[in-house]
Amino acid sequence: MMQKVVYPFTEKDQEQQKLSVFTAEKFGEIEQIHPKVVQALQESNYETMTKIQKEGIPQILKKENIALKSETGSGKTLTYLVPIISNLVHMGTDQKITREDGSYVFVICPTRELCIQCEEVAQLVTKKSKYLITGCLMGGENPKKEKARLRKGVTILFATPGRLLYHLKNTNSFLFSKLKYIVFEESDRTLDMGFKKDLEEIVEQLTQKVSFEEVQKILISANFNDSVESLYLKMSTQTIKYVGFAKQK
Ligand code: ADP
To answer: What is known of its domains (predicted)?
Structure first.
């Protein structure tokens, strides 16, 4: 039997138990990662975590808002998808999750290619939990078809900024009242590409429509610069944890 590591959820637990936070090497060694997720990962030969996954997954499980920075190819996609999907599978076991609940997760990506690529990884991780529906909203697609899909419900949604904003404003049947996570993939690049205003409007829409302070915020970037920070400050008054880097001032 593999010894499992249970990550403490509060600083107090951590002090009391004197647990080392970063001892797990494999996805399957973290108690909170659902066995169905571990199994799906194993079937695609993902077993040992990369450095950023070892650091980032416990923080996301602790429900921290995080800024996660590490070089391309270091495994950032699974760093957020594994804990998020795992939490959804746990929730889905206690209280059934159905697609009619609408979106629990928004992942905002700067490009169509990144949306498609991230959705493919999400499909792999949800392989044993088919009730978690993934989907994309992307500039250049037929908005009517997207509306029809949104009406049915998309649990984990990957979207380019302009198209997400369009549906937030124009699609009454777009369900996201249960939104729990918002991920900004390549947030520095998204801002560099001129999507600042769209992102701010998305934040404004969400602030009006859901308890946005309670939505867990995850910012992924290659460079955590002032514009990424000011985007975060527009979203939350809570402190943000830096993963993969120490913030320089
Ligand atoms: P990043 O977003 O940091 O650029 P990706 O998440 O795209 O990196 O991952 C880069 C590559 O590493 C992908 O091909 C992915 O399948 C692979 N990878 C990620 N995590 C692991 C892991 N734990 N074990 C083996 N390969 C991994």
So the answer is: The Q motif is unique to and characteristic of the DEAD box family of RNA helicases and controls ATP binding and hydrolysis.
Instruction: Kindly list the structural domains of the chain, giving each domain's residue range(s) and its CATH number in brackets, ordered by start.
Output: 30-243 (3.40.50.300)
pLDDT tens for each residue of 126-179: 999 999 999 999 999 999 999 999 999 999 999 999 999 999 999 999 999 999
Three-class DSSP category at 78: helix
The DSSP-derived string for 143-183 is HHHHHHHHHH--SEEEE-HHHHHHHHHH-TT---TT--EEE
Instruction: Let me know if 81 is exposed, middle or buried by CB neighbors in 10 A (0-12, 13-18, 19+).
Output: buried
Q: Kindly report whether the global pTM for this prediction surpasses the value 0.90.
A: yes
The DSSP H or E segment spanning 43 is helix 35-43
CA 72 to centroid of ligand 1, rounded, Å: 9
Largest CA distance in the chain: 54
Mean pLDDT of all residues belonging to the chain: 90
Q: Is the CB of 3 under 6 A from ligand 1?
A: no
Are 69 and 222 in contact by the 8 Å Cβ rule? The answer is: yes
Determine phi and psi for 73, rounding to 5 degrees.
85, 5
Q: Could you write out the DSSP letters of every residue in 110-123?
A: SSHHHHHHHHHHHH
For 164-217, the pLDDT digits (tens) are 999 999 999 999 999 999 999 999 999 999 999 999 999 999 999 999 999 999
**CA of 71 relative to ligand 1 center, distance in Å:** 11
Ligand 1, atom nearest to 77 Cα:
6
Ligand 1 centroid, distance to 161 Cα (angstroms): 24
